[in-house]
Design goal:
By secondary structure, this protein is of the alpha+beta class. The chain contains eight helices and 15 strands. β14 and β15 form a beta hairpin. It is globular. The termini are far apart. The mean pLDDT is 93.
């Protein structure tokens, strides 16, 4: 199995409920839990500017970046320092620093969703990422509609869960490797419903196949990779599986920074996560599930 086996799915055709593309999606969900969305309509200029602004932020001094650190929020907003997040079950921290940006909230949002933090040094940072957040949230909701159809649910099933959800846009910087540890992000699964990974500029992302093989994922820079998270696995009772993945540094003679921009689509904190595929009564509040996992990866 190689990276070429990850299906490329046209968002335009998904919107049209094209039967062949729906079959592609069902295959991707059953085989890997990973697929790539093309024709998504988010402009290349906007995504390129996102990476440009991310690099500008991470190039600020540690003294300035640390002013934007809020560990009391569990890293829910603002800056998290290098070497803090540690994948579930691991003891060695990931080799990354990151920034979290959420929805531009008002009084209609759950009070447990934090406000965004304004970066004073970069005048257009917050306005730009507010717009990118909205675009990715809208895209994610429409992808969830397609996933709902594969589960024989109403296509609007997830709308109330995520329209004012606790979703996060994460800007990641993996600095050059300075040790023999080639794992920039150790094997892990995502916490949320689905993740949208926006056109990573460098290789390094790998997923674990059903045969326990690591498959390198190489996306078009304009494509958006989507994968299933633990919350979706929980509510589908493992019908859709949260796939293990990692980020590694290839020993190819280069050793530079790597930037990445995943969007984690979360339900609102008050959503009760229970089975949507059978009559199992087990349930957990989305807020409690998230808080438990944030503590487990050492962000509190």
């Amino acid at each position: 199995m190689s990276s070429t086996d990850i299906p490329k799915i046209s968002f335009k055709k998904l919107l049209d409920n094209d039967s062949s593309v729906n079959n592609q999606l069902s295959y991707a969900l059953e085989s890997h839990g990973f697929f790539e969305i093309i024709d998504h309509g988010i402009s290349k200029d906007s995504l390129d500017k996102s990476y440009y602004l991310a690099a500008k932020f991470f190039n600020l001094s540690n003294e300035i970046k640390n002013r934007y650190s809020h560990p009391e929020f569990g890293g829910a907003r603002g800056y998290t320092q290098y070497g803090k997040e540690t994948a579930l079950g691991e003891t060695t921290p990931d080799q990354k620093e990151f920034w979290h940006h959420g929805p531009d909230i008002d009084a209609s949002y759950d009070s447990r969703i934090h406000r965004n933090i304004v970066v004073n040094e970069l005048s257009d940072f917050n306005d730009h990422f507010n717009e990118v957040f909205k675009s990715l949230n809208n895209l994610g909701m429409k992808i969830l509609s397609s996933i709902a159809r594969t589960l024989t649910l109403n296509e609007n099933f997830f709308d109330d869960w995520v329209s004012k959800g606790n979703s996060i846009l994460r800007l990641i910087h993996y600095p050059p490797i300075e040790s023999e540890n080639f794992l920039r992000a150790r094997p892990h699964e995502d916490i949320n419903l689905i993740t949208l990974l926006v056109g990573a500029k460098e290789p390094g992302l790998e997923l674990k196949s059903k045969d326990n093989e690591w498959i390198p994922i190489q996306s078009d820079h304009d494509g958006i990779i989507c994968n299933i998270g633990d919350m979706m696995q929980l509510v589908t009772r493992n019908q859709l599986k949260s796939t293990t993945h990692r980020v590694i540094h290839y020993d190819d003679g280069t050793n530079t920074s790597r930037y990445s921009m995943p969007f984690f689509l979360h339900p609102a904190p008050n959503v009760m996560l229970r089975s949507i595929v059978n009559d199992c009564k087990d349930e957990v509040l989305a807020h409690d599930f998230l808080e438990e996992r944030v503590k487990a990866i050492k962000l509190y």
